Amino acid sequence: MTGYFVTGTDTGVGKTHVTEALARCARTLGKKVFAFKPVETGCEVVGDRRVGADMEALWKAAGSWQTGELRGVYHFLTPVAPLVAARDESVEIDLARIDRVFREGVAQSDIVLVEGAGGWRVPFTDTADVSTLAKQTGLPVVIVSRATLGTINHSLLTIEAASRDGCTVAALVLSRRPDENADFARSNRDEILARWKGTVLIYEGSDAVLRPLF
After folding, report:
1. Which residue(s) pair with 142 in the sheet?
2. Rounded CA gap, 144 and 17, in Å?
3. H and E: helices and strands count for the chain
4. CB crowding 155-175: b at 16 or more within 10 Å, else e
């Protein structure tokens, strides 16, 4: 099984954009991609189904072939942590169910990309969080972080947590928005590299920067 589990240092840091880019990179190499966000909150009701914007973006980036639960298992309406959203709807998130769907997707694809929800410690149940799901998939982890102020601390803490939990951190990706200072982003990358001997990439909208991960 080849692929990545994509997590973030926080919500809104660019996980979905990076996961989309990874999917497109893999497709340019002729790979069939299964891009999967099993749990999403803040979804909308469209017609007779719930739609999560993140999962829809991943679905399109992967080639729009996924159907049913391969297109997301849990779609909650309230834009809060998954555990809180599930409680609000009197639902319990079942990681075994997610694993069954994950294995089904793995069997039908060459590259697997799984996106978590929020940061590494965001809870899914009373006893399971994003780290639990990451370990369940067995995939190496790509951590997405902001490129701006605060990212050195947040990035290193998340790297430490993932490593301590027994996961392999494949790369840290600083997601820089167009209005953010490029020199500042590079400085942050250099400071992180001085403290962690791993791969640190700056994603600025060009998918090519992520090609080394394949």
Report:
1. 6, 171
2. 10
3. 7, 10
4. bbebbebbeeeebebbbbbbb
pLDDT digits (tens, 9 = 90+) for 196-208: 999 999 999 999 9
The neighbouring-strand residues paired with 46 are: 49
Other CB atoms within 10 A of residue 203 CB: 20
Residue 13 in contact with residue 87, Cβ under 8 Å? no
Report the topology of domain 2-213. Rossmann fold (3.40.50)
Domain ranges of the chain: 2-213
Count CB-CB contacts under 10 A for residue 114.
26
DSSP states of 154-190? HHHHHHHHHHHTT--EEEEEEE--TTS-HHHHHHHHH
**DSSP assignment, residue 150?**
T
Q: How far apart are CA 117 and CA 81, in angstroms?
A: 8
Quickly state the pLDDT bin for 210 (edges 50, 70, 90): very high
Distance CA 81, CA 99 (A): 20
Q: Checking DSSP bridges between strand 49-51 and strand 44-46, what pairing results, if any?
A: antiparallel
| pLDDT tens per residue, range 134-164 | 999 999 999 999 999 999 999 999 999 999 9
| Residues catalogued as catalytic | 37
Stated pTM of the model: 0.96
Q: How far is CA 195 from CA 136, 155, 200, 202, in A?
A: 28, 11, 11, 17
> Dihedral, CA atoms, 28, 106, 141, 82, nearest 10 degrees?
110
